[in-house]
Amino acid sequence: MTDFGKLPGGLVPALLTAEEQDVVWFLGSLVRIRLGGDATGGQLAVVEHENERGFGTPVHTHHAADETFFVLDGELRVEVDGQISTAGAGSVAFLPRGLSHSILITSPQARYLTLHNPAGFEEFTRAVGTPRADMPPPDLQALKAIAAGYDIDIIGPPPRL
Q1: What is d(CA 140, CA 114) in angstroms, rounded to the nearest whole number?
Q2: pLDDT at 88
Q3: Domain 2-135 in this protein, CATH class
Q4: Domain named Cupin type-2: which ranges (predicted)?
Q5: Domain coordinates of the chain in residue numbers?
Q6: What is the DSSP string of 26-93?
Q7: pTM for this structure?
Q8: pLDDT surpasses 90 at 44
Q9: pLDDT for the residue 137
Q10: What is the SS3 assignment for 129-158?
């Protein structure tokens, strides 16, 4: 994280490179914690989500934080307190704390940001999710056996950097 020095009020500007951002598998989605409360004095978290058609969140309520959705690509069905709306690329939805809500991806794929004020959701994401680096590689023998049934030969493991 780049250190810009301390500003009046105790907050410190933050710049995190992609390599410094945590990436986890969270409820079946690839999630990038772009900015967490540790970098914002607990004021804000920015999380990027990526998944495919049919993925949805459980209906839930944030009691201590507001949540804003910004759709980067694709389309979401957003349900808030029983009202359903569609949010396509470029759409923004602000959901004040205390409202029950869920989303469902209706396009083939979608990418969206969630902003959480105050921060804290990113810690829940880390607690529930699995770090992408900790995901085990595929079982090559099982993959070969399944692939053979589809007339595909698996020759060896994927290349590594």
Answers
A1: 36
A2: 98
A3: mainly beta
A4: 55-107
A5: 2-135
A6: ETTEEEEEEE-HHHHTTS-EEEEEEEETT-BPPPEE-SS-EEEEEEEESEEEEEETTEEEEEETT-EE
A7: 0.79
A8: yes
A9: 64
A10: CEEHHHCCCCCHHHHHHHHHCCCCCCCCCC
Find all residues with CB under 8 Å of 58, minimum gap 6, and list them.
102
Percent over 70 (pLDDT), the chain: 87
CA dihedral 44, 110, 103, 20 (to 10 degrees): -30
pLDDT at 13: 87
Helix (H) or strand (E) holding 126: helix 121-128
Query: Does 161 have pLDDT greater than 60?
Result: no
Q: What confidence tier does 142 reach under pLDDT thresholds 50, 70, 90?
A: confident
Give Cβ neighbours of residue 64 (< 8 Å, ≥ 6 apart): 97, 118, 120
- Which residues have C-beta within 8 Å of that of residue 57, sequence separation ≥ 6? 27, 102, 103
Q: Which residue has the tokens 């770090």?
A: 131
For residue 1, which of 18, 56, 9, 10 has the smallest C-alpha distance? 18
Higher pLDDT, 65 or 160: 65
Please give the structure tokens belonging to residue 13. Answer: 């500007």
The identity of residue 131, as a single letter, is: P
Beta carbons of 101 and 78 less than 8 angstroms apart: yes
In 3D space, the residue among 89, 91, 95 whose CA is nearest the CA of residue 107 turns out to be: 89
